[in-house]
Design brief:
Structural class: alpha+beta
Shape: globular
Largest sheet: 6 strands, mixed
Radius of gyration: 19 Å
Helix content: 40-55%
Number of strands: 12
Order of helices and strands: HEHEHEEHEEEEEEEHHEHHHHHH
Strand content: 15-25%
Oligomer: single chain
């Protein structure tokens, strides 16, 4: 996926071709870029197939529309600010081919700028805590672990990062792809949760490694990113959650915790970030009717029965008990 990212294409496409062309067809979905990304690709890499979209549909809508034009058994979704490595594709395809019930698989995602460390968007696979806060093995909030091969595993996770994931096209299409209303952020967690509610599995393998620059489209502290993350997290819960706590109470608890985190932004002087949270809550409230319709579309499995779910609170463990790593939090 590309949006006004000619600089990322110049930086990463050559290596991408070197390590990918023998194993897969390469497509670039262009999300209505206004720079000369497509011209650059066509002039320099004619073997790459481009899928131009008329306008920016976001990560979710852009992939949904672009992937409709690709006929393949497996899709490998890769951000434009990813550096791939030798032999990164075969381990992912092997997992999907050899396991009928696995829908998606994620590689190890490490930091491009500090290659000994895991990266923010995905790390060693996505998990979700007792209150549906997403976190990663190898990265909790802003703390990224040094890769000491402590997460060199093949194991089930809750969600696979949209920065780099392989997924069976049939399963992707059967659940309607990404929810285009999300636009960007958490759409991959929502997708994986829907798949898990249908009894499908999501896995991680350390046999494949990629490096993510991160923040290539929206900076990590962007008010728009804050808005999308808070709004989309509530949407995701409303659509997919089934558990011991009634949905309305579960959402109210989350909104209260969101307000507490918002007060920290106020104290730090980040008023734009705080108002982004208020805007996200308002957007959620006025869309409840629409979310109720989406909630009825798929069956649900009890939240606490899904693999990759933790009954612990990452907020309590991280901020109050000062546990920073995945292992400290999940196995204290």
């Amino acid at each position: 996926m590309n949006f006004n990212g000619k600089n990322w294409l110049e930086k990463f496409i050559p290596t991408f071709i070197t390590h990918s062309e023998k194993d897969a067809g390469i497509y670039v979905i262009d999300n209505g870029s206004s720079d000369d990304s497509l011209l650059y690709l066509n002039n320099n890499f004619p073997s790459i197939k481009t899928i131009p979209l008329e306008k920016n549909l976001g990560f979710a809508g852009g992939y949904n529309e672009g992937l409709k034009k690709i006929n393949a058994e497996f899709f490998i979704i890769v951000n434009s600010d990813i550096e791939v490595t030798k032999n990164w594709i075969p381990p992912l395809i092997k997992v999907l081919k050899n396991n009928t019930n696995i829908s998606a698989v994620q590689p190890k995602i490490k930091s491009y700028n500090n290659k000994d460390y895991f990266e923010y968007a995905g790390a060693a696979g996505g998990f979700i805590d007792a209150l549906a806060y997403p976190f990663c093995r190898g990265r909790v909030f802003d703390y990224a672990e040094l890769d000491k091969k402590q997460h060199d595993t093949y194991s089930e996770i809750f969600w696979s990062s949209g920065a780099c994931m392989a997924i069976k096209s049939k399963d992707f299409n059967d659940v309607g792809g990404f929810d285009k209303d999300f636009f960007a952020h958490m759409e991959e967690i929502d997708l994986c949760w829907r798949l898990k509610n249908l009894g499908k599995n999501i896995f991680y393998t350390s046999e494949s490694t990629v490096y993510h620059f991160g923040g290539g489209t929206l900076k990590y502290n962007s008010p728009k990113k804050t808005y999308l993350n808070y709004r989309n997290n509530l949407w995701m819960i409303h659509k997919n959650y089934k558990g011991e706590i009634p949905l309305i109470l579960f959402v109210l608890i989350r909104i209260l915790l969101d307000q507490i985190s918002g007060s920290k932004l106020v104290l730090s002087g980040d008023l734009k970030g705080y108002f982004s949270i208020i805007k996200a809550h308002f957007s959620y409230i006025i869309s409840i009717g629409k979310m109720n319709v989406k909630r009825k579309q798929f069956s649900k499995i009890n939240f606490h029965e899904l693999k990759g779910h933790s009954r612990k609170s990452i907020i309590w463990n991280y901020f109050f008990l000062k546990r920073k790593t995945f292992s400290e939090i999940t196995n204290p």
